[in-house]
Specification:
Two copies of one chain form a homodimer. Chain A is α+β, with helices and mostly antiparallel strands and 676 residues long. The first copy, chain A, has 18 helices and 30 strands. Chain A folds into four domains: 121 residues, Immunoglobulin-like, CATH 2.60.40.10; 76 residues, Methane Monooxygenase Hydroxylase, Chain G, domain 1 (Up-down Bundle); 305 residues, Alpha-Beta Barrel (TIM Barrel); 100 residues, Golgi alpha-mannosidase II (Immunoglobulin-like, Sandwich), CATH 2.60.40. In chain A, strand 19, helix 11 and strand 20 form a beta-alpha-beta unit. Chains A and B meet through strand 1, strand 2, strand 4, strand 6 and strand 9 of A and strand 1, strand 2, strand 4, strand 6 and strand 9 of B.
Chain lengths: 676, 676
């Protein structure tokens, strides 16, 4: 089908087809967007390394600069670029402020450096007459350069230009000045950037708290922290908070804490009707007691919650709230703002459906309703309200079923006021939709890690996450389990599967989390045929015996300590996989400066597996020709490894993983201290 | 160094942060620009296949369209996109006009298709009441759809909407209409594109003549076509023209045909001073007789040249002129427009230099002089002048030493008037600068092929040229030799090296050329230590014995015939390399529809080489489970090949290459006709 249509004006690529255009073309700015408009992400304290191609005709000396502007600043700062190879240039600057930065690249000809290079080449062989002519040409280039400089440099450059111009009378002095290294350095500060070529756009960069890039999350239900038979509260959760902090978690994340609806309340195991005393699902938000800005009375008061947040802060832990933008039929919004919900033809509000399934306890908002601006503002104020209570970390439930422009709006408004806000997207959806949410501003995202089990699956997926453009905007957060998902390998793999998945999550991804105490107590009984917990905590109160001697708590504590102590585990960019000759063994490393960690995991929870690792020293970051010590942080065993092939053997009945810290010195064998 | 600077306003990425923004995000448009503003290239008669990601929240049915506009048209045409996988969509349209096209992508929700899918899912299980409510929801979606349609579709859609709305009274009729396939098809023509998400920009596409994509060039000096001791002319060149046409060349390319300067004229072998009778270099353009729009009197008159062009046209050959934008000291521009040249401090014009070398016979133009607009216009008029004489193919000398914005201007102006113009960039320079020239509009470019000899070098380079974004804007033209370059392997490789390089050029690249008769006569004596011809034709008149019995003319003729007969050799996109177990043997294939050519070349000119090819049927385009016949177009030998591994042996003393055409049929062995 083909027909003639009208359409709005579009931006047509403009060629630099005029004499006013710059000779220098700026291309392939990195990091830069290859598609769509989004900000790349970094954390506070990072350096941004900007590279670009600066392409000019002929053989003139080209120079470049990065212009950047910190959040809220009106003036641009500049940092000059250094040449790499093949017309590529680089510059870096420090990111010392939260918020949205901008940067762009400019390139121009450095006319004095160009003159100087040709002067150097002809000095040996030129006739006196040629040399004088050449020096006088240099004088005119230098005078133009001086006119761009402020005093006192302007005066100094003009003086030097006069010396060059006077080459006929004082040739030796002029030649000496022309060859002066200090003069070249001074003049090179003032190339003709007013004639620069520029990157087609300014790029955005969002700087977030360090916690956005490196975090260990612990999810638990406060209502399951009471004494047997009782509904837990924020107060009874203090012990669980202490317990999570003792294990070394950075973030404690609570399912929704709001009043739970009564209409169509679901019973245990998601039964269509609740029995008396069933507490309901915390995701059925809203009741007579209030909505998204209220606290479920059985958990305590808003003051109790504030006390919980304060206690967490004392322990160095951040509290994350789960924001689920949906309403139970009892939510005050349903009465006060029926226009925010889609209607059925009989005028009743449309409940959630996934035909033929009906979710009559959940009303989705209509993000495109006639009063969308008011709805969007109100929902954004939910985040702002909790931020004012001291919560700046949010886990967002099902963001992929809400309008994408809403998230752009909401995150922009929130971050304007709270640039330290961190949002984790619970989006187990189509890959491009997950990435779109990250581009719109989510700080972290759930991933497909939960279903990536084999060496090939893990290698392929992690390569996409860490070695492509995805790494610029998408921060993975690896969850071995969630209240919604008990994956098959945890149902059948026993203790070793829990240990292996924990090590993988904690070392492959700088951000990871577990849903506990179900995880550390190795809860593994599923509803028949499903990847879901039987007797799911979403619909009932559980009483966990966290003191059980078989708990994985010591291993979790060990891993969180290893993560903190090794800076290379605080990011994912350096991740490299190394071949093994056994597909049940996966081996990978991260490095940052001299800190190197090599992890080896036996992916088979049932059998002892052994094999040879082929370690690539370049990828490890270890100089050639040295032997090095690997020190297993789990078993405390140490080995001296000398070449690329090394043997490992891992028994799932004991510990299915090595997490080696590498120690090497270039100079002397004596530097290895095996008893340190 | 870091300081505060002012800088012009930049385009800041705008987030779709308002309720008016579309729910659908358009990303990763292909072909699209990953860097810089440039048009992708196609030839007349191609289809443009456009792909894009259309990303929407939730699970609604998304649809998309490509809007495109042919050169000069004001209205946009549309073609609807079809879904592929993972939110990716595709549409194609035919390119039936030369010039610059524009295209962009839009995506929106198809509300009626979304309703219809949910209706289909619930029909089986829903209660009557639910079904009626659902049909009435469909009615309201359909009514909105109808309002976007012109009559008669509008009336038909409204009528159907009324049937759905009447579901309570006539449920069976409403359900029947709701499920009607024709209604779905009709309604799907009118989704809410006024709420569409759009690609961030409109993309440009330049459609050039087929010759821009598939051409064989033959370069010769007309002055070397006279009788012994005489200066050749356009008239004496008719025979050489016939000779080139007989070999099957598409383009005959002449070095500059303008008056040659006398001041500082170079002698034989580039001697600093000419002897009496030395003809000078044709690239020292301009004398009392005229400049870039005049003809060298010794070659004849402008009428003679026009006759030459007319004769070429009769033979089906295009004439290409060499445009070198530089002047000899005797060029009329030097007297009439001294302001177009850079000056030395004494007021004299600056000659070309590459310190310590001086080229006093060449004055470069100053593309950034005060009167640049006039200069640019004048130089552009050189191309326009020759286009009016019937020449639309130009080889441009050293374009990389001229201002890049000048080329953007010049090519734009030329192509506005002559959209059939084809420009070949002689740019053996830095890779990114070569690519920048192609992005600015050069149709074809010289390449590094001349120095890529080993299997690894050829594979790596061709992969960059054919499998990356480069293929969208850069059309390689492979030259085994030029008057400037006699590469080492031709100096020492003997006849076999000439043959191998010829086969490689003609089959790897859809555009190739040779500088003859030096090539077919295997001229191989170089100036000591250089990759340059001794007694270079640039500085003297040669007399070539083209009838020599050892000439490569028959092989060239054969290759040009093979190229014409096999459509897969008319482009480079399908190029695939296949492994061989001998590094001296390179094997590659191209395919287009059922036309498949496999080429195998022995890269060692001195020894017989044999080995096994591992042919990948998927890459070849041959269905699995068939055997196939390969028919060597050079030797006429035929082999029946049955599996992926096949043996070859090539003796450089005979023919160092196979060029196989593949024949296969899926159905029956009887389809192989070994005597065809």
């Amino acid at each position: 089908m083909s027909s003639v249509v009208k359409r709005p004006a579009v931006v047509v690529p403009s060629h630099a087809a005029s004499a006013a255009a710059s000779r220098v073309f700026v291309e392939h700015v990195s990091p830069g967007l290859t598609a769509g408009a989004y900000a790349v992400k970094r954390v506070l304290g990072d350096e941004l390394r900007v590279e670009a191609d600066l392409i000019c005709d002929g053989h003139d000396v080209v120079t470049g600069r990065v212009l950047y502007r910190s959040p809220g600043a009106s003036a641009w700062c500049e940092v000059r670029m250094q040449p790499l190879v093949n017309d590529r240039f680089v510059a870096s600057f420090a990111l010392d402020q939260l918020g949205v930065w901008e940067y762009s690249v400019e390139g121009c000809v450095d006319a004095f450096a160009t003159w100087r290079r040709s002067f150097d080449r002809r000095r040996e062989s030129a006739t006196d007459e040629d040399l004088i002519a050449n020096l006088r040409q240099g004088a005119s280039v230098l005078a133009a350069t001086a006119n761009r400089a402020p005093d006192p440099d302007r005066t100094r450059l003009h003086a030097a230009a006069q010396v060059l111009d006077d080459a006929e009378r004082r040739p030796r002095e002029a030649a000496h000045t022309g060859a002066d290294a200090a003069l070249l350095q001074l003049a090179s500060q003032y190339p003709a950037f007013e004639q620069a070529g520029r990157s087609a756009r300014a790029f955005e960069l969002v700087v977030e708290p360090r916690l956005a890039g490196f975090s260990a999350w612990y999810e638990f239900f406060p209502r399951s922290t009471g004494s047997a038979g009782e509904h837990g509260t924020f107060r009874t959760s203090f012990a669980r908070l202490q317990y999570a902090a003792d294990m070394g978690f950075d973030i404690v994340y609570l399912p929704p804490i709001h009043p739970i609806g009564r209409s169509f309340r679901k019973g245990r195991n998601n039964a269509p009707a609740a029995e008396a005393g069933d507490p309901g699902s915390p995701w059925a938000i809203g009741a007579a007691e209030g909505g998204h800005m209220s606290v479920h009375p059985e958990l305590g008061t808003l003051d109790d919650f504030r006390a919980f947040v304060a206690r967490a802060r004392e322990l160095g832990v951040s509290v994350a709230l789960d924001i689920a933008l949906q309403a139970s039929p009892d939510h005050p919004y349903v009465r006060e703002h029926p226009e925010w919900f889609a209607k059925r033809p009989d005028g009743s509000i449309q409940y959630a459906e996934n035909p033929p399934k009906k979710y009559q306890d959940i009303y989705p908002f209509d993000f495109e309703c006639a009063t969308a601006p008011e709805l969007w503002q109100e929902l954004t104020s939910v985040f702002l309200f909790w931020a004012e209570q001291g919560v700046t970390v949010f886990r967002v439930d099902n963001p992929h079923t809400k309008s994408l422009p809403f998230w752009a709006y909401c995150i922009h408004e929130l971050k304007q006021r709270h640039p330290d806000a961190i949002l984790l997207a619970e989006a187990f959806t189509r890959p491009k939709l997950m990435y779109a949410l990250a581009k719109l501003g989510f700080s972290q995202s759930y991933t497909y890690f939960t279903w990536r089990n084999t060496k090939h699956e893990l290698t392929t997926y992690l390569t996409e996450l860490t070695k492509t453009d995805v790494a610029e905007f998408f921060r993975p957060n690896f969850w071995p389990n969630t209240p919604d998902i008990l994956p098959e390998h945890l149902q059948y793999g026993g203790r070793a599967a829990f240990m292996a998945r924990l090590v993988l999550a904690a070392t492959l991804s700088s951000n990871y989390g577990i849903y506990g105490p179900a995880f550390e107590l190795m809860e593994h009984v599923a509803r028949a045929g499903a990847e879901e917990y039987l007797d799911n905590e979403k619909y009932e109160i559980k009483h966990w015996d966290v003191a059980r001697p078989d708990s994985l708590r010591p291993l979790i504590t060990q891993l969180n300590r290893i993560r903190r102590e090794n800076p290379c585990l605080h990011e994912n960019r350096s991740l490299e996989f190394h071949p093994t000759d056994n597909d049940a063994l996966i081996c990978y490393s991260k490095h940052r400066g001299s800190n190197i960690v090599i992890t080896v995991v036996n992916l088979d929870p049932h059998h002892r597996q052994s094999g040879w690792l082929e370690l690539d020293r370049t990828k490890l970051g270890i100089p050639a020709g040295t032997s090095y010590q690997v020190h297993d942080q789990l078993s405390q065993a140490r080995y001296l490894w000398g070449d690329s092939r090394n043997y490992v053997e891992l028994d799932p009945a004991g510990m299915p993983a090595h997490v080696f810290v590498v120690r090497y010195r270039v100079r002397s064998e004596a530097d290895f201290d095996y008893f340190a």
